[in-house]
Amino acid sequence: MNMQELKKTANAVRQGIVTAVYNAKSGHPGGSLSAADIYTYLFFEELNIDPKDPEKADRDRFVLSKGHTAPGYYSVLANRGFFPVEDLKTLRHIGSYLQGHPDKKHIPGVDMSSGSLGQGISAAVGMALSAKLSNDSYRVYTLLGDGEIQEGQVWEACMFAGANHLDNFVAIVDNNGLQIDGPVDEVCSPYPIADKFKAFNFHVIETDAHDFEALKKAFDEAKATKGMPTAIVAKSTKGKGVSFMENQVGWHGKAPNEEEYQQAMEELKKEGESL
After folding, report:
1. What is the pTM of this model?
2. By C-alpha distance, which of 28, 231, 26, 65 is closest to 145?
3. Inter-axis angle of helices 258-274 and 3-24, to 10 degrees?
4. Which residues of 182-217 are buried (b: 16+ CB within 10 A; e: fewer)?
5. pLDDT in tens, 116-137
6. Which residue, 40, 263, 245, is CA-closest to 271?
7. How far apart are CA 121 and CA 66, in angstroms?
8. What is the C-alpha to C-alpha distance for residues 2 and 23, in angstroms, rounded to an integer?
9. Which of 54, 166, 198, 245 meets the CB 3.0–4.6 Å disulfide criterion with 128?
10. Is the dihedral of CA 7, 177, 214, 219 positive or negative?
């Protein structure tokens, strides 16, 4: 895909996020929207995956460590053809396979059930080690929240990845600066994020989460890095793409009402048409 097509796809992913959360009457739009461009780049450019064969043995693995941003994950999987986009409207409904957090048993394309913060990266590191032990070619990617990296388990996993030189492993931090209770630096500052990963023997790349050229450069550099895992610290805007949600901590875990939904969709559709 060229950069224009990626932008258009990311816009469709954002529309899917807003639609899903609105229909669920609950969920996490802020961090789903901030990661929408990362999701789009991963699933449409970076990952070796096949919607027709979600379990293929040599597929690249993706673990959503910040599992509450499942609306973004589901929207990109649907837009990539793993299941119908129409099903996004069933998010969190009784009987729907699209639960509030990713569920490996029932959702095509999901490699790990996640939601307990800190645990996703640990599972992902295990997958990366498994590939090394079996001489398999697949790579493993995990997406973390910057609030999530306040969890100690994250750094245990990083210590292990660094010590075992897992160069088939990429940790991406969606650095939108806000968590459920407020700005991350006021709640329990994870900064300096890059220096922390460097201390755990990671190759670190700092980039713009909303610039596809920059994301391409970062992921290409990660692939070229040998002998150590890579951390991509991606600076993002929480709620990106919906004016009244941007940088507003209140939209971490709240669904839009009818009026807000209409405004958000109008903005996103207008943006989509201009692309």
Report:
1. 0.98
2. 65
3. 170
4. eebeeeeebeebbebbeebbbbbbebebbebebbbe
5. 999 999 999 999 999 999 999 9
6. 263
7. 9
8. 32
9. 166
10. negative
